[in-house]
Amino acid sequence: MTGTGQPQAGRISATPAAREAIKRLCAARGGPVMFVQSAGCCAGSVPMCFPAGEFITGVHDLLLGKIEGCPVYIDSALNAAWNSPDLVLDVADGEPEGFSLGPGRGQRFITRAACKESRQHGSPGSFQ
Amino acid sequence: MKYTPPGQTGSIVSVQPRYENFIGGKWLPPVAGRYRVNLSPATAKPICEVAESTPEDVELALDAAHAAKDEWAEKSSAQRAAVLNKIADAIDEHREMLSVTESWENGKPVRETLAADIPLAADHFRYFAAAIRSEESEISEIDKDLIAYHFKEPLGVVGQIIPFNFPLLMAAWKLAPALAAGNCSVLKPASPTPWSILKLMEVVQDILPPGVVNVVTGPGAEIGKALAANPRIAKVAFTGETVTGRLIMQYAAENIIPVTLELGGKSPNIFFADVMADQDEFVDKAVEGLVLYAFNKGEVCTCPSRALIQESIYDRFIALALDRIGQIKQGNPLDTETMMGPQNSAQQLAKITSYVEIGTNEGAEVLIGGHRADIGGEFADGYFFEPTVLKGHNKMRVFQEEIFGPVLAVTTFTDEADALSIANDTLYGLGAGVWTRDGSRAYRMGRAIKAGRVWTNCYHQYPAGAAFGGYKISGVGRETHKMMLEHYSQTKNLLVSYGTKPLGLF
């Protein structure tokens, strides 16, 4: 889906806690979910989680990858503005924002920036 | 002075243990019977419980709104204006109570709610009361006997989704034009700030005809879609972030209804060297203009979060600004001396902390702040963050992404062309600030910056009568101006022939 001249998308990985949360959410819902990285304003900078297919992706949405079979997208202009970040899907305490689903247990999904060095080492950094 | 926190003896704000939805002029318990605890960000302690609604409650609210819409639409503009003016009077009458309520639930300092949020909310109702009285239908004389009448008719029932950063003022921005134009509303407050809007409903419930305004509280995932995708709304208005904005547009496309969206921003605030050409009151005003990034603890879509300072004055100007930032008083939002209260939620605090780390990892220099603020005492668990300044360059993520906190990204520019290039190098186009003593330059910059509002030698003023809205991905539509009536109306054309001659075709 990368258009001509668009920078490559970064990579998405996930913490074990996020993987477990996604599996739990999908099991509870009886179907897969999708993630779309948000930006801007009140509930920005978080991965919005929707039932799979709820958010219609377009030609400008980059697929960062799949976690537990669930796709994670970022808008290509946002990806460029953020310098193609490697992102780590994780969970934290607190209710989800916007129209986003949460994994329950008072948790929400978050994305952390992965340390660029970790690209070589293959494990996500975890600064937040 | 210090106001007593709501819920404590002596407070001017009464708090019920539990709040229901406001539907059809009545307080209705949520169908599923679920509630959730609503916290104050100043203490991270509960204020009250609010309804955790489900789609069934949205349907009840829509039933009530549809039952009310014909009678409301048929009222004369004078009658509707009278109701709006009474709402404004009631807000004024309860200014302190609403200010304390808003401050305690959102975290914004009461000096701001007393001076800005609440008086501006009242003024918006008055402005749209006046605007609807002065609306005139248009008539075109197509030819001598063929006349086109253009009437503005209400859309019907509209869905309105309110953000957490200015719960009452954003509700006023959306409700006033919708009601003035003859619509009924189902309004969903932001999940972290449902209570102040319910307190406003207490104040205006005897003024509004039942069903004209309905408030349903609850999580976005549960009731946001139930409202925004509902075929029984004729328009949806939303303030928030871009992904939800896109989703709302997508739902609107399914129902073929209009939307207005006010989304994010990363507003440049540009200081030309001539600001320092004299040592006068204007320098003081410009310094305050930079420090306004801390207004509402930076939780403002138009936060002037990128300061662009001309190289030749950078050292002197940033020194003045940092000195002023260092004097910001943080703490109890209900103390009128407090300038910055807590961030709205633990989520916000975590995000802001994360962005400062992202900035420093990218090589940005922390000029001041950078940490969670330790207020201590009863506010030890509150979500306070220090006013922060990061020095870097415009390609850094902290210059590109809206942090929605008291974090200023500052950089320098060489000349006017450089300033313009940096200013426009952003996905967003909501606000901008230009500071200069040169009127021609101010005009050139103002016209060339791709943003819906360019404050010139001022910032963060939101008077009714000045259109507000975004360029680029910052949104669709213009609020706080009578043109918003267009967004809440549809045009009925009567094409009337006064002639008697047949066309002669059949």
Greatest interface? A-B, 41 and 49 residues
Mean pLDDT of chain B comes to 97
* Count of DSSP H/I helices of chain A: 3
- What are the low-pLDDT stretches of chain A, counting only 5+ consecutive residues below 50? 117-128
- C-alpha Rg of chain A, in Å? 14 Å
Q: Averaged pLDDT of chain A, please?
A: 83
Would you count the extended β strands of chain A for me? 7
Strand content of chain B: 15-25%
Helix content of chain A: 10-25%
**What's the helix count of chain B?**
15
Could you state the order of secondary-structure elements of chain A as H and E?
Answer: EHEEEEHEEH
Structural class of chain A comes to alpha/beta
Number of strands of chain B: 23
Oligomer: heterodimer
Structural notes for this entry:
By secondary structure, chain A is an alpha/beta fold. Chain A has helices spanning 16-29, 76-81, 117-121; strands spanning 12-14, 33-37, 47-51, 61-67, 70-75, 87-93, 107-113. In chain A, a hairpin with a 2-residue loop joins strand 4 (61-67) and strand 5 (70-75). Chain A is globular. The model of chain A is unreliable at 117-128 (pLDDT under 50). Chain B has helices at residues 55-74, 77-93, 95-106, 110-134, 167-180, 195-204, 220-228, 242-255, 281-291, 314-326, 346-361, 397-400, 416-424, 439-448, 484-487, and strands at 18-19, 21-23, 26-28, 35-40, 45-51, 138-143, 146-154, 157-161, 184-188, 213-215, 235-239, 259-262, 268-271, 306-310, 365-368, 388-391, 407-413, 428-429, 431-435, 453-456, 471-472, 475-476, 489-497. In chain B, the strands form six sheets. A seven-stranded mixed sheet of chain B has the order 15-16-17-14-13-19-20, with helices on both faces. In chain B, helix 14 links the parallel strand 19 (431-435) and strand 20 (453-456). In chain B, helix 1 (55-74) packs parallel to helix 7 (220-228) and helix 9 (281-291) packs across helix 10. Chain B is globular. The interface between A and B is large, with 41 and 49 residues.
